[in-house]
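Sample 3 of the quickstart, ligand adenosine-5'-diphosphate:
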Amino acid sequence: IARSRRFSERVPVPSGRDEMAQMAATFNAMLDSLQDAYRLQQRFVADASHELRAPLTAIQANLDLLEHQPDLLPADRQEAAAEASREAQRLARQVGDLLTLARADAGMPLHKERVELDRGLLESIADARHLARGQRVDLAALEPSLVNGDPDRLKQLILILLDNALKYTPAAGRVAVALHRDGATATLTVQDTGVGIAPDDLPHVFERFYRSDPARARDPGGTGLGLAIARWIAEEHGGTIRIESRPGRGTTVVVCLPTAT
Ligand code: ADP
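Result:
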């Protein structure tokens, strides 16, 4: 099995409850988890290649146009160059997100220190306001919260949630952010009045590359990796993340993190 990498093979388990039977059963259980991990890895590589191909195809098509159509109107040339540049940015985002997840899978330890979550939140909100297309971004509550964590990753987590809230909320909408501290738990809530998520999509949004059809139509530049990264960061800090949504009404994401003592 080791040489052929046929992780679907199993060793025969002798009848009885002696040590040989126990060892064979343990060995098979180990093969079950190896097979799962191997399958997941293969799917991840297949999905990643598929997703990376879309921006590459668009870049290639626009460069071909610029190279082989010398009499294109200046406005069309400009549009082709802009499109190629947008797609290159999307590719860069995808590769960045894939690298983050590859590090997560490799079990890279986070660099942890005492972090003032409230301060990180204020900085992230200031960044997010630049991304707003008219939506209000309100701070509903800000209770001082110290956590033992990686400041850059925690900021990345907050920005993923704010970015999503803004992407999927129309210009007239509102995003409300709150940070509460209750005993040993800091609770961050990001609530929007956006398009919401259909009940069928909701159980899948933390999966890698999962994007609802309305999301693909609204924001073709997304990577479908944001929430997978957000969940990894929350869990690496001993926390949880959950999402509630009502289509057409809005979405609320709640992150709970243990506070530093
Ligand atoms: P991306 O936003 O790049 O598509 P994410 O992993 O961050 O990837 O999100 C996965 C999917 O979850 C999105 O494609 C979208 O369908 C849905 N989603 C996430 N956040 C929101 C939100 N605030 N409002 C509506 N849909 C959301």
